[in-house]
Automatic annotation (TrEMBL):
Residues 1-24 are annotated as: Disordered. It comes from Streptomyces longwoodensis. This is Uncharacterized protein.
Length: 79
């Protein structure tokens, strides 16, 4: 019987904060890579400053939508 491939996901690495390179503007987010719920490796998500700013706005919109749902029971569409 074939074993299904692991379900991968990444989460922010505990105790490690995102940081930026002042010269290049790169933003680095320390992550831990998991297969199901078992940690496999530590990695970094590396983004340009523009990518980091765009993702920050998307995260803010998602958090606002989640807050709206929690407060009013209605989801708000996130762009």
């Amino acid at each position: 019987m074939d074993t299904p491939p692991p379900r991968w996901h990444a989460s922010p690495r505990r105790g490690a904060a995102p940081y930026s390179d002042r010269q290049t503007g790169e933003v680095r987010v320390p992550l831990t890579l998991f297969a199901v719920d078992e940690p496999v490796s530590d990695i970094e998500l590396v983004m340009t400053r523009a990518e980091g700013e765009a993702h920050l706005e998307q995260v803010r919109a998602a958090l606002a939508a989640a807050t709206e749902t929690a407060l009013h029971g209605r989801p708000r569409e996130v762009a």
